[in-house]
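Record type: ASSEMBLY
Status: queued
Input:
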Amino acid sequence: MIDLCSLENEPMLSVEAARERIAAALEPVIGVEKTALKYALGRVLAEPVCSPLDIPHDRNAAVDGYAFSSRDIDTAQAFRLHLAGASWAGKPFQGQLNAGECIRIFTGAVLPREADSVVMQEFVTVDGDYTVFPAAVPARRFVRETGEDVKSGGILCGAGKKLTAIELGLFASAGIYDVVVKRPVNIAFFSTGDELTGIGKPLAPGKIHDSNRYILGGLLTDPCYCAADLGVIGDDMRQLEDALSQAALNHDVIITTGGASVGEADFITRILERLGEVHLWKIAMKPGKPFAFGKIGKAFFFGLPGNPVAVAVTFQQIVKPGLGRLTGLMPASPLRIKAMLTAPLKKEPGRLEFQRGILTQNADGEFFVASAGGQGSHMLGSMSASNCYIILPADCCGVQANEPVWVEPFQTSL
Ligand code: AMP
Ligand code: MG
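Status: finished
Output:
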């Protein structure tokens, strides 16, 4: 266990340093399970998977056309070959291809051993039992070689990969029907705060609806996690202590929101001092400065700020890479691109900012970005309108229009 030293008298912790401390403290969960391929989407592969077959399994045609051997033919000139039969996908040509012969062939159909070329059907003419090929047809083309994608015994996918639809298809093409994946990480989460009211109930004066549990519930909807929503706990020492110590008994991770600063009603940090080895960090990021991390019993604890935008940002930037390490995921940096700012952005120096932006692309493929609106850490409306973070370094004092900025898009396609 690393030294989770408290930072009360220290300068703020950089986002990078916070990620590193968390990564150093977390060990991937040990358990693995065998899962049928069709249930493996989104799970983390626990061991490398090798192909028991060559892929493609047979030499086959890449197009519909006519297959022949170019060995004894001068393809610079037009030529005629006798049509000896056909090879269909799933129904190979049974005979032997002799000199002077060709066969009709369809995409994916096995090539006769003697054939080395396929010519697209559009280029030939049929003359009775003969096929007429024009001059200068390309030879040795449109043949998919055995094992050209993956050789038998070769690695299809390494451990630590989060399986996408593509890996499911790849494994299926090798005839693999089950895979060994990491067990899901068990995560408990709850919101804290006396002001919180469940949705569907009218708001009494001074109360607000609890949005954080819906954000976290959404962010934790992932086949790698088994997430339990423990509801809302008021600002009450006993209740919070009970909830945390109970949750620590049967979860790998506990995530809470609110109560992580040093205000009067912020019990979490005081309780944590008693229950485990947890410390409050001031992370040099905006939104998201107050952040607690550590251990309660065997469970890792992440105490997020109360404001909803800060919950989303700290989860994505700090918690998610940590959970990735627990689930055994290979570390990967999020895609970041440079985009031209279309209007100036204000910023105080001191903290790395994740401003919410709207990223667009013109017909030439150039990226442009503008603020999505209000940048308050309570403003989910403007976050909903955004499609990226605009990342402004800690020492930045604002950016002028027509200057490039780093942008992290929210969505990737697979
Ligand atoms: P705290 O960190 O508990 O001081 O909360 C900071 C701000 O976030 C306050 O304005 C809280 O009312 C708000 N907040 C805390 N928890 C939630 C929640 N679950 N949903 C929406 N807002 C919240
Ligand atoms: Mg609170």
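Annotation: The helical segments are 15-25, 165-173, 212-219, 237-249, 267-275, 308-326, 380-385.
Annotation: The longest helix spans residues 308-326.
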